[in-house]
Structure formats: C-alpha cells, structure tokens
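note to self: dont lose this again. the chain is below, predicted strucutre after it. 247 aa total, dont forget to put it in the shared folder this time
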Amino acid sequence: MTENIKSTPKKWYASWFDTPYYHILYKDRDYNEAQHFMDNLTGYLNLPENAKILDLACGKGRHSIYLNSLGYTVTGADLSENSIIEASKSSNDTLQFKVHDMREVCTEKYDAIFNLFTSFGYFDDDADNLKTLKAIHSSLNETGFACIDFMNVDYVIENLVPEEIKTVEDIDFHIKRYVKDNHIFKEISFTADGEDYHFTEKVQAIRLADFEKMMEEAGIYLLDIFGNYKLQKFFKNQSERLIMIFK
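---
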C-alpha cells in the first residue's frame, strides 16, 4: 500500500512523488510544449555536440529521454527511488539515471544542468535552497550553464484556482490551493483502490529578487531571465514562468 503522507515521517516531496497517483494526476502535462522548451533552451545555450547534461529532479525521465534523443549525454537525477527505477528502463550508453539529493554536489562536472518545471523550493529550511544553488554551481564545468525553470509566483497567486476536482483514470482528485506563510499549498484528497489518501504539496513563493539574493550569496552570475518556454521577456505580473540562466 502506498504510504499516506499523514502517517509517515518522510518529507512530502519524497513520499508523494513516490506514489503512482502523483504520475496519474499529472499525466496530461503538455509534453510538446516541454520539448519545444528543450529545443529553445539547448539552441539558446549553443551547447557543444555530445554535451553532458544533468536533468536535476528528472522524475520518470521524460525530458532526459528527449534531451538524449537530441544527441546529448544525459544523466537524470531524482530523490524518488521509484521514479528512477521507472526511468532507468530507458537507460543506454549516453543516458543514465541515479537517485540523488539536489543539495549534494555531483562527482561529475556538466556542460549544462537543468532544473525544470518548478522542481525547487520544496525544503522546510531556507538554507537548503542556497545549498542547492551552490551544489548546482559546483557541479558545472568551467564553461557550463545552468537553468532553473520556476513558476512566476506573482502570476500564480493572481490566477490561483482555490478549489477544483480533476478526474483522471476514474480517480476524483479533490484539489484545494492557498497561500500561507510565504508558501503556495496544494491539498490533494482522493480515494483509490479502496483507500483514502491526502497529500499536501508545498512550494516556497520564491520571487526573482529572492533568487537574485541567493545567487549573489552563492557566487552565481545570472545571465538571462525569460518569462515563458519560447524564451520571451519576463514580466513580473504577466509571465507564467520565471526561467533563469546562470553560470
């Protein structure tokens, strides 16, 4: 039986991401849009042929697999052991997957490190965000670039849907969203396989100014900021994404 978040001491981002229901709920994400983003991003960065890319917080590896299909040597890393087991089914000579905590420095150096689709800001301790940025910085080679693709907090809060029911594969996911203590919360309740489940997603409301402050402290040079997957200009109240390129 999948562990219920209320009955386990594990961090929510380890246990919820490890359940099959997480992947069911989010199965309809726009992967065409994601692939166009990868095309735009790798083109913008002008990465060398056979560049080594780290896909940090890769989930089941869909984007790692696509980046590998473009000719890059890719390592997908994620905290979720279940996700890595699933992703590893697609491994080949130039595509590998590993369980890895993003707060830890990698043993290898990379030409590019991508942290995509708001896979940042899940820690309870603010110091862990800085630790993650420092780890990313230390895992790049001398000419390497990193990209953090985060939500644009101001846009998200302005357009927050407080309550909805999403039905996926005959499961009714009851979702509540709210802002509290500088975090954006998503409460997810559902019944599946005869069991009642309740999970809470929580991500810090980190704005551009917060990232800039952390990056300065981490010795990171912020090169460019974009507001969507077409890599168009960032507007504080209008852009859906906050995409930061740094080295």
